[in-house]
Amino acid sequence: MVRVLVTGTRECKGEAARRAVETALETIDRTPGEHVLVHGAQRGPDRIAAAVAKRLGWTVEPHKAAWLRPCDDKRRHRGGRPDRRTGSWCPTASGLRNQEMVDAGADLVLAFLAKGGVNRNTRDCIRRARRAGLRITPIEIEPEAEKPPGQAAA
């Protein structure tokens, strides 16, 4: 069985991201045996990878960040951050989710980074995976240019 953890910034979107994720997973799919995708269920590379993995017949393990979870011993902050829609949100949710994915185990981590971007949560997952001794393959994606308001996609 081959377990693949995909982490990636939401800045990676559009055709370039789809091609990069698809190429990476299709290459891994050539390895004989069962394949499992572990991902964070966020927009961008996570959701693209989930769709590709399902199409390839892989088992898919989403690990959603629990943004609305209440504070407890694992969270080192004083309450959530205020939010007009939800009341508050947990600022440590993405880090906890990243650790959960790393703890689930993987033979390979594919880290999709926006070229020139901050990639904060993706880099956090990379640091956690490195500490756990997981093999990491960073893949830089050129971010798509923003379209002016009202301009149709080509």
Task: Give an overview in words.
32% of the residues are buried. The longest helix is centred in the first third of the chain and has 16 residues. It contains four helices and seven strands; from the N terminus they run βαβαβββαβαβ. It is globular, with a radius of gyration of 16 Å. The chain has 154 residues and is an alpha/beta fold. Strands 3-2-1-6-7 form a five-stranded parallel beta sheet, with helices on both faces. Strands 4-5 form a two-stranded antiparallel ribbon. The protein has one domain: 3-Layer(aba) Sandwich (Rossmann fold). Helices cover 34% and strands 23% of the residues. This is YspA cpYpsA-related SLOG domain-containing protein. It holds the Pfam family YAcAr.
Summarize the SSE layout with pairings.
Layout: E1 2-8, H1 14-29, E2 35-39, H2 45-56, E3 59-62, E4 81-83, E5 87-89, H3 93-104, E6 108-114, H4 120-131, E7 136-141
Parallel strand pairs: 1-2, 1-6, 2-3, 6-7
Antiparallel strand pairs: 4-5
